[in-house]
Amino acid sequence: MTGRRTAPPGGWPPPERAQLAGEEILLRPLAESVSERYFERYPEDVEHYGDLARQWEVHDTQHLLNWAIGDVEGHVDLERQVSWLAGVLEARDFPLEHLAGNLEVAADTVEAQLGAATAQRLRGAAALVRGTPSFLQ
């Protein structure tokens, strides 16, 4: 991680809701739960990025959960979206291990509520990130 100044979340706002098997899923509360567990695992992100770390974590996790649900529903390619995000984060010198860890934490956090298929997609995306050539160097 470099000393570049991090901006607050911008770009495409994360979705607040998703549909899974005909049921509306509120994404922000799930993303906040994932965030709490994530920062237990990676407290250095708060030390490095300050309050922006939490904002970005919830923002990106809402997108990740939406993409995973969309993948289960058959209208989003989670691996493609995660590959894109990994490229963006890598260009910003954000450690890909933290993205992979976030996906695993998300899988563990939401499995009971969203089901095994969504959790499996998230774990598969974590494995994809860990298989990224720059991750292996």
Structure report:
With 137 residues, the chain is mostly helical. It has one domain (24-136): Globin-like (Orthogonal Bundle). 70% of the residues lie in helices and 6% in strands. It has helices at residues 27-41, 44-49, 51-73, 78-91, 96-114, 116-130, 133-136; strands spanning 17-20, 23-26. A two-stranded antiparallel sheet has the order 1-2. A hairpin with a 2-residue loop joins strand 1 (17-20) and strand 2 (23-26). Helix 3 packs across helix 5 and helix 3 (51-73) packs across helix 6 (116-130). The longest helix has 23 residues, at 51-73.
Key words describing this protein structure:
2 strands; two-stranded antiparallel ribbon; Globin-like; 7 helices; 70% helix
What can be said about the biggest beta sheet? 2 strands, antiparallel
Structural class assignment: mainly alpha
Number of helical runs? 7
CATH architecture: Orthogonal Bundle
Mean pLDDT: 91
- Global geometry: globular
Strand arrangement across the biggest beta sheet: 1-2
Beta-strand content bin: 5-15%
Number of DSSP-assigned strands: 2
* CATH class descriptor: Mainly Alpha
Number of domain units: 1
| Pattern of helices and strands | EEHHHHHHH
The percent of residues in helical segments reads over 70%
**End-to-end CA span:** 16 Å
Rg, Cα atoms, Å: 14 Å
Enumerate the spans where pLDDT stays under 50 for 5 or more consecutive residues: none
For this structure, the CATH topology is Globin-like
